[in-house]
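Hey team,

Filing this mostly as a record. A colleague (T.K.) asked me to run one chain through the structure pipeline before their review meeting, and I want the input and output archived in the tracker in case anyone asks later how it was produced. No errors, nothing strange. Just documentation.

Input sequence:
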Amino acid sequence: IVAVLREPGARLHAAFWNYGHYQDRFGASEAGFDKFAGAMMEHFRECAKEHSWDGCAHRFEAYGPRYEGVFYHADQLIKSMYSTFLEGWLAMFGRDNVLVLRTEDVFSPAETVRLEQLRRACAHLGLATPSEEQLRVMDKHKQGQEDYDIVQRSMNLGGEGGEAGIHPEMRERLDEFYRPQREALVAMFEDDRLRWTRPYSNANKEE
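Output structure:
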């Protein structure tokens, strides 16, 4: 299994701008994102106090009309809770069978960073070690593909330095909310990169 994960707050921000129903409900602006993210965090914290973090991540809307009535059941907030769900994957498949890469590295502007992610994926999958030339061919092949273009557009919508940056106060709130998740990922995979030290979207640029 190869999982590609983006910094949680930036992924939430991109989801807000990718799906029009959130903008229709909260407003197509950064102030609208602030309302959306703030409301979802508040609803989830209320659920976690009443039940548990894991329970609410897995069964949020099942806890009755109060949570079933939350707009889209806080789904995008919950989708960024990577460690909560990966814990089950590791229990089922084993740590050695799960590789986690960062979206910021897979789609980095720096070729050396992108090629290293391909190298890690090939090694994890038990494939023959590709040459540098083969890695470059693999890297270029994905460019221009529809899914690649979608992710590239999405990368410009979330996180600092994108087309529409998250307000600093909301960035701090998101960092606080997702910090336990990021720390759990670091512990699970013994990889400090999963702490996503800021600035998130400006990392790994070519010198």
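Quick notes for T.K.: DSSP finds twelve helices and two strands in the chain. Confidence is low (pLDDT under 50) at residues 159-163, 202-207.
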